[in-house]
Amino acid sequence: MSTDKVLERMTITEDSPGTILRDFETLLDFIGPDGIPASGKYHLLPMSRLRELDERMTRPLRPELKRPQQRSFPNLHGLCLLLRATCLAVPKETKRQARLVLEPDMLSQWQGLNATERYFNLLEAWLFRANPEVVG
After folding, report:
1. Where are the beta strands (DSSP E) in the chain?
2. pLDDT along the chain (136 residues), means of 10
3. Element (H, E) at 7
4. How many CB atoms lie within 10 A of CB 76?
5. What gap in Å lies between CA 80 and CA 5, rounded to an integer?
6. Taking the CB of residue 55, how many other CB atoms lie within 10 A of it?
7. Tell me, what's the pLDDT at 136?
8. Are residues 36 and 46 in contact, defined by beta-carbon separation less than 8 angstroms?
9. Residue 3 is inside which H or E element, if any?
10. Which pTM value belongs to this model?
């Protein structure tokens, strides 16, 4: 069967062909309109909230480490890479601390996409724009 036929028959939803769309939306909700504190020179997710976010994922990993870092959660690490590659979230420096905030214009565009468009947007970001150096 040709690739075109496979893609024509494919149904893309929040939970198929995998849970990336559901988990990505969970990450966006977790960051929220006010953003979250960012840690380190790469502006990663705050270490103190990694377990909380992991529990919200479709398949939490629950690593048994005393001080897990973002890279201890490959699912979250990958989602953050996509988040930055899509420009949906950007680091903002303030006098008090750096924050990871959602970019309103990009978020508005994202929300206007259907599930298929979102899925292929993430795939394109991963294949062509994602740079692992962004997340250390």
Report:
1. 36-37, 89-93, 98-102
2. 76 90 98 93 92 97 90 94 95 88 97 96 93 70
3. helix 3-9
4. 26
5. 32
6. 10
7. 61
8. yes
9. helix 3-9
10. 0.89
Q: Tokens standing for 78?
A: 């990958």
Find all residues with CB under 8 Å of 23, minimum gap 6, and list them.
Answer: 57, 58, 75, 79
What is the rounded distance in angstroms from the CA atom of residue 94 to the CA atom of residue 113?
32
pLDDT of residue 6: 75
pLDDT for the residue numbered 134:
65
Report the C-alpha gap between 24 and 67 in whole angstroms.
24
Taking the C-alpha atoms of residue 36 and residue 46, their distance in angstroms, rounded to an integer, is 8
Residue with tokens 């903002």: 92
Helices (H), 14-114: 20-31, 50-56, 74-85, 104-111
Counting Cα atoms < 13 Å in the Cβ hemisphere of 121 gives: 20
Distances (CA, A) of 32 to 25, 65, 88, 101, 109: 10, 27, 12, 8, 16
What is the structure's pLDDT at 46? 93
